[in-house]
Amino acid sequence: MQNAIRHYVVADEKFLCSEDGSLVLLGDSDLISLSVELIVKHPVKSHGDKFFYVSCIQPKHVAGYQWLSLRNLLEQLSEDELQTAGRALQVLRWHFDHQYCGRCGNPTVQHSQDLAKTCVHCAVDFYPRLSPCIITLVTRGDECLLAWHTRSKEEKYSCLAGFIEVGESPEQTLEREVMEEVGLRVKNIRYASSQPWPFPGQLMLGYFADYVDGVIKVDKQEIYRAHWFQYNQLPKIPPATSISGRLINTFVQERLRINTIKD
Ligand SMILES: [Zn+2]
Predict the structure, then answer these.
(1) What's residue 139's pLDDT?
(2) Ligand 1 centroid to 17 CA: how many Å?
(3) pLDDT at 116 over 60
């Protein structure tokens, strides 16, 4: 019987992909036939009778394949596929980042049950690092605020986002980030949905917020430009597989519904 193990093959944080750019998952025998040098293998997830592993190998040119970063694959993966591939990448990062105890420097060992590495000297467990972030769509009637972030070379607009600092609630982060990045005050903060975002280990908490007052003044550190956009005259927005795209689409649907009722 064909076993149901599938490997994400990763080298230098890039995924093995076909020549046409699709993410490839290999069975055990296919992986062996690549004749690659395995560095580490970790279970990622099981789904029904399927077991997903991530196998990290020494970087190597593999004839008939290419290596692509997860960001390069964003447009083609479904949200589920992105989540599992993202988890694979984060499991590997955790493996390499916690081989030694940060407190005493001794090698760690694999925890017997959890996805954790343990220092037996200090009795400390090291879990994969998660960084909670807020992401928000600020709205003003039929308009929403979208920003061109400095991390994007091309002119692309999306929601505002930021890391939650220690001792801060997500709502406080949201108010602080909106003020720092665009100089606006907001109210009526409503939680919408969330998404793991493995670049490198964010957990995005998505919110809507209503504009109160202020004039857009961008910080230029994180944002090049920010504008109010009418719901039916939007620039190119992120794909619906990202939480940013989802928040914007939800807002558009809501305004369409409200304006149809008005008419
Ligand atoms: Zn230790």
Answers:
(1) 98
(2) 38
(3) yes
The answer to whether domain 5-97 has CATH 3.90.79.20 is: yes
55 Cα: distance to centroid of ligand 1 (angstroms):
27
Selection from 39, 88, 84, 36 nearest residue 62 by Cα: 36
Confidence of residue 175 (pLDDT cuts 50, 70, 90): very high
Give 124 Cα–ligand 1 centroid separation in angstroms: 7
Rounded to whole angstroms, how far apart are CA atoms 127 and 105? 16
Summarize the confidence of residues 116-121 as an average pLDDT. 96
The alpha carbon of 133 and the centre of ligand 1 are apart by a number of angstroms equal to 29
Q: How far is the CA of 41 from the centre of ligand 1 (A)?
A: 24
Where in the chain is CATH 3.90.79.10? 132-262
Ion ligand 1 nearby residues (CB, 5 A): 101, 103-104, 119, 121-122
CA of 107 to the centre of ligand 1 (A): 8
Give CATH 3.90.79.20 domain extents, the chain: 5-97
CATH architecture label of 132-262: Alpha-Beta Complex (3.90)
What pLDDT is stored for residue 79 in this prediction? 86
What is the pLDDT, as a whole number, of residue 1? Answer: 44
pLDDT digit string, tens, across residues 140-156: 999 999 999 998 888 89
CA-based nearest residue to 84, from 31, 138, 48:
48
